[in-house]
Amino acid sequence: QVQLVESGGGLVQPGGSLRLSCAASGFTFSSYAMKWYRQAPGKERELVAAITSAGGSTNYADSVKGRFTISRDNAKNTGYLQMNSLKPEDTAVYFCKAERAVFKSNYWGQGTQVTVSS
Questions:
Q1: Which pLDDT tens digits describe the chain residue by residue (118 residues)?
Q2: Is the CB of residue 58 less than 8 Å from the CB of residue 70?
Q3: Contact by Cβ (8 Å): 32, 100
């Protein structure tokens, strides 16, 4: 059974940090690129960060560059999103996605809530 399970969300004060995890099972995680998206209430889902299957290349939305770091540990079938210097506008549900574009194969996690508030 294919699963992507996010964890690590929660309530944090502005300027704080969180690390999200995305645990994969039921498929060959190391063959898939991984992306983190977020969706705030009333807004479209937006791409936050992406990392290639081997972890050699990363990309970030302009709004999180210099604050967020995406990484992965293929030996543990887990991806991460380290979020520092959090701002209230980072409040959203965060989703991880495993993507293998050439085979049009995608898997989504269920999402984890991140709330940045004092």
A1: 999 999 999 999 999 999 999 999 999 999 999 999 999 999 999 999 999 999 899 999 999 999 999 999 999 999 999 999 999 999 999 999 999 988 888 999 999 999 999 9
A2: yes
A3: yes
Can you give the three-state secondary structure of 31-66, one letter per residue?
HCEEEEEEECCCCCCEEEEEECCCCCCEEECCCCCC
Backbone phi and psi for residue 61, each to the nearest 5 degrees, phi listed first: -65, 150
Q: Measured between alpha carbons, how far is 15 from 84 in angstroms, rounded to an integer?
A: 7
Residue 13: what are its φ and ψ, rounded to 5°?
Answer: -80, 155
